[in-house]
Amino acid sequence: MGVLVGRDDDMAFLLDAWSETRRGARSIVLLGGEAGIGRTELVATFTERVRADGVDAVVAQAVTVAGQRPCWTVVAALRRRLGLADDEVDPGAVLTGVGDLLSRLARSGPTVLVVEDLHLGDSSYTDLLDYLLAEPDRGSLLVVATYRTEVARRLPGLSTVLARLGAHRAVRPRELSPLTEPSVDELVRRSTRRDGGLSRRVWQRSCGNPAIALASIEAGDDELPVTLRALALDRLDALPDGARTVARALAVVGEPVPHGLLASMLDLGEPHLTAAVRAAVEGAVVTVDRDRYALVNGLLGEVLDGEVLPGERARLCVPLERRAAPPEHDEVLAACFAVAGRSDDDDATLAAHETLAGLLCGPLGRLDDGVALARRVLGELPEPRRSDPAALGLRAVLADALVRLGRWDEAASELDAPDVPTPRLLLVAARLVLGRGDLDAADERLAVVPGLAQTVGDTRFADDVVDLRARLALARGDRGTARRLVAQRLATGRGGAWVVAPVLCTGFRAEAGDPDPEALDRLVRRLDTLADRVDRGDPVLRSAAEAHLVLCRAEAGRAEGERRPEDWEHAAGLWWARGELPAVAYCSWRQGESMLDVGRRAAAVEVLREAERLAVSLGATGRIRGIRRTLERAGSPTTSAPDDPPLVPGIDTLTARETQVLAELSRGLTNRAIGRRLRISEKTVEVHVTHVLAKLGARSRLEASTVWHGAAACTSGPRIVPASLPRRPRGELTPGRP
Predict the structure, then answer these.
(1) Per-residue DSSP letters for 88-125?
(2) Where's the HTH luxR-type domain (predicted)?
């Protein structure tokens, strides 16, 4: 037998069924999975375990051969076991005959019958399963029947029978999932002494498929093995033309693709595109993750990418090149409506706004634009429509963006507004109270989400629950639970950089101080994989993901015991440019901590005081405590309490983003330059400047700048915004200089 790794739960499932059989039960296990997933290896290991209990399983493969009697492979296997002649089973009553033979075996004790590859046999094999379920009083019997999931889906008769059998109380259906990344790591270690670079390549190609992983390990750095190419082509050749076209487009992109972008790449028309995608999913070539499509593994991408013609590639890439410069809101909405074909549909309009706001606040990192859009749309909605699912989704996007921007009171108001709670709104509420340091309240909100999600049929946010539970465990000092939850979340393989990077950060934080070398190595390799994927991806998404990746690198260095203040300074600058002040406070704290560790005490105290003021203005209780502990270690007193009066009248009335705009304005930058530095539109900057002037009672930009510099003279910087945080990300040219 080969190497069996990562199948403990599946083996326990089979052994539990065997234990029931030994107690006198009769049951059937239906074991499905894609090609190469390891059904045969698992069943072989199981039969060895059964043999250790003194029972030899009867093993047969379902095969259809012209001229042979029904279930002939099962009959032949039973005859060999019992030493019977060929004519002892009546060809006209095969099912009864097989039942009699199994009963004869069962007289001596519990019996196991394995029928492999139902998808290759005729209907007599599933008829046999039906017969055995209808004749329960023939002794203790366990039947394990296996099949290939993607083939069964293409055979209507078999898929229908399997669904019907799976609903029977004596049948235990189970579909084998791909191995997790840690299991693939273990498989590589058991199979070879190569370094971690091979593990990363094996994972990227296999995505947890054991057969692909083992063949990739054997090939090492060589070209794609012929056996693997044949495995991929076997699956691809079964697809209709439209489904294969969809798969080629996904191979060209190389990352999950939203439905709208795929539609613009292929121009098939909505009905044909939907049918093609469905066929690709049913053929186990494409997987769906929320609203995006991706190939199920890297192997398919390698094979498909090689068959894309130059002209076809150029045509497919046109929409990707257009996406490199994000269009304005109305253009994006027009594209959404063109794809949906119903621009006059109010529901479609609201759903399109929800999607757009999610893109702006998510992968594009344009939170101010997303907040402005969400506020405008929600403000224009009539009262009865504010409880529509899309409206509640849009409110959740808005509240989440406000939490990330540090506008926590505004976020709380948005979360309190709806009468109908949703899983997504509860998750944002949990994130908010966790940021404020109320761990019990966060726990209470998270506890409600799974049940509510089940009730309303919305299970999209299970991953987010795991993410937040890991952060909550870490906040409580339970690093073991945090590690387990991070591994569980990463094992799903789902999400882009803006989703996965925060999980990696939590994982690195769990390792800081007392790292588990293997866990830390897996996190670092996963970060390398993520960075490679971002580098090969869309330029706009690459820019938006930069802050996440830089923060991950800083966290990785901290977990490895390195002290690099410049990494934290770089991260703080990037988050400052995005306007995400809670992240700025955290990075500034770690920057000061690193400075202290390398002996730069005076500079460390200055940065830590700035971080403390920012955390106080946010009301981030947990963060304040951590920063003050570091200040105490530096031998420095903490700054003023959060309820002290404003340092300069008007300054404390500004929002976080308005304060950032004022800081840049005070340097003499134009609206266009400010927008470029803060990654917001020039029009948005103009609105912020108007609000700043009104709140400060200033008649001009010069007067507003004077107020800012006056506040800076009162202390090391106005409350809300650190005074000496980097004003530009590393590598950005100073405006006006070459």
Answers:
(1) GS-GGGHHHHHHHHHHHHHTTS-EEEEEE-GGGS-HHH
(2) 647-712
φ, ψ for residue 26, nearest 5 deg = -125, 125
210 contact partners, CB below 8 Å, separation of at least 6: 5, 36, 37, 38, 41, 179, 187
Residue among 112, 76, 75 at smallest CA distance from 97 = 75
DSSP, residue by residue, 398-435: HHHHHHHHT-HHHHHHHHHS-SS--HHHHHHHHHHHHH
Could you count the other beta carbons within 10 Å of the beta carbon of residue 319? 20
**Parallel, antiparallel, or unpaired for β 58-61 and 111-116?**
parallel
Round to whole Å and give the CA distance between 314 and 335.
21
Residues in CB range of 216: below 8 A, 6 or more apart: 201, 202, 205, 206, 225, 228
Cα separation, 701 vs 61, in Å, equals 82
Q: Beta strand 171-175 with 26-33: parallel, antiparallel or unpaired? A: parallel
Neighbour count for residue 540 (Cβ, 10 Å)? 16
Is this prediction's pTM over 0.85?
Answer: no
Label the pairing between strands 292-295 and 257-258: antiparallel
| Structure confidence by residue, pLDDT tens digits, 211-264 | 888 888 887 766 777 888 888 888 888 889 899 999 988 888 777 788 877 888
State how far the Cα of 253 lies from the Cα of 484, in Å rounded to an integer.
Answer: 32
**Integer Cα distance of 244 and 224 in angstroms:** 20
